Sequence to fold (193 residues):
Amino acid sequence: MAAALALLALMLSAGAALLPARPVPTIPPTAAPGRRVRWLPPLRWWWVPPLLSAGMLALAGLAAAIVDAPVTGPPLVAALVLVVAVAVTGGTVVVPAVFHLARRRPEPGDGDADDERPVLRGGLVIGTLERIAVVVAVLTGWPEGIAVVLAVKGLARYPELRDPRASEYFIIGTFTSVLWALAAGGVGVGLAA
Fold:
């Protein structure tokens, strides 16, 4: 029963990350001339998808902690696939939410100095690959792999990190992304143990 609850919570966590926090076009912008692009209404509260995803991941973790016998066979494979999906989809909404929380408010008289985020190109793709690598390292019992991933990412981004705002953005994003992947991987380890 606890394993089924963990699987359900993992599915809901991945699904919660797919809720539209921003407007989503329902008709492709390249639609026929004269046809308007319609938008799905965005969620008014940007924090709903990450909070739901985190809550469901926490529920999955609690359920995995009380599993009497390890999950084996096809249910384990399904659980591990869901764990990787949660690591990827959940991190994709949690990281921007943390950026939103950490965003500096400009001091009076600073003007628009901090309105722009630093440009670290490829952040979404790099973050997704990072979470996949971290969760796979956790699931395979190779914690050294996490250090390898972080070292490669740090070396690749080193030239861009001379800007203090970019380095802060990099650290917040990396820590959030890695912690999310570790949490998702921990659920998988709990189900398999």
